[in-house]
């Protein structure tokens, strides 16, 4: 990590920075599509959406990876049922991702901590340095899709992710149907647009309640909030996901919704979102 000495970098720091940029373009260069999942708001279901759209891509035959860029709350391994911490190191001193049961390549801070209970208590430069390493020092191989699960907010950490990963093909924003969440998402969309990323889509999570007994869709927050919100912001509406125990149960036992409830309405929802991502942001490019 280059430190700022009144705007000047030492030659050694400059060398390190250039080396890291070269590593990033080499190690991420073989990945066809990079999709970042974000939200200005915490707890709205970013990691849930990231894990499930990764699973849906993988099901369709795309070689898929997830970079869990949330260093404080790295939840992706739990959500995909990964208990082992066996990150390998290859000949070039790069970390080799852990592979989930369904074949998704996963890299997460969770693999690098001594125990599940170890909190990360770092200040800004350490955090951005670590995030950059999680991006630069991983051997992803030839992936078709890399999903990046971001921490919440518009602070240093998501900003570092967006600025460090070159050529992000799409950003998936996650919101819930209320003004508080939408207000934060609006700021996040502003940040992404400032970075000149144009392909932004919205997933509305917890859009309605799906009764586990009769399957009725109870629209207690009103209808079409997500679609209208996306239209107001001038971004693509990718789909909605109901509030349902199927989603939280699957996260609890470490299986994706798509894997646990194949052919059910809820897994169709994630498949539909992936179809929309491809149609709007990816399909014009070669797979
Ligand atoms: N549609 C849903 N139905 C039921 N539970 C859900 C749904 N979406 C997410 N959850 C649950 O809500 C909790 C928060 O979800 P998640 O961790 O994906 O949010 P997040 O936005 O990634 O949070 P953070 O900001 O902390 O990273 C989890 O326990 C998850 O299982
Ligand atoms: Mg999360």
Mean pLDDT: 89
The CATH C-level class name: Alpha Beta
Find the structural class using helix and strand composition: alpha/beta
Overall number of strands:
12
Sketch the topology as an H/E string, one letter per element. HEHEHEEEEHEHEHEEEHEHHH
Uncertain spans, ≥5 residues at pLDDT below 50? none
Helical residue percent? 25-40%
Globally, the shape reads globular
Explain the layout of strands and helices.
Layout: H1 11-28, E1 33-38, H2 46-59, E2 64-68, H3 76-79, E3 88-89, E4 95-96, E5 98-99, E6 105-108, H4 124-136, E7 145-149, H5 156-164, E8 170-175, H6 179-194, E9 200-204, E10 209-210, E11 217-218, H7 225-233, E12 236-240, H8 245-253, H9 257-260, H10 265-282
Parallel strand pairs: 1-7, 1-8, 2-6, 2-7, 8-9, 9-12
Antiparallel strand pairs: 3-4, 5-6, 10-11
Helix pairs in contact: 1-4, 2-10, 4-5
Bound molecules: adenosine-5'-triphosphate (ATP) and magnesium ion.
How would you portray this structure in words?
With 287 residues, this protein is an alpha/beta fold. It has one domain: P-loop containing nucleotide triphosphate hydrolases (Rossmann fold, 3-Layer(aba) Sandwich), CATH 3.40.50. The protein contains 10 helices and 12 strands. The longest helix is centred in the first third of the chain and has 18 residues, at 11-28. The model has no long low-confidence stretch (mean pLDDT 89). The protein binds adenosine-5'-triphosphate and magnesium ion.
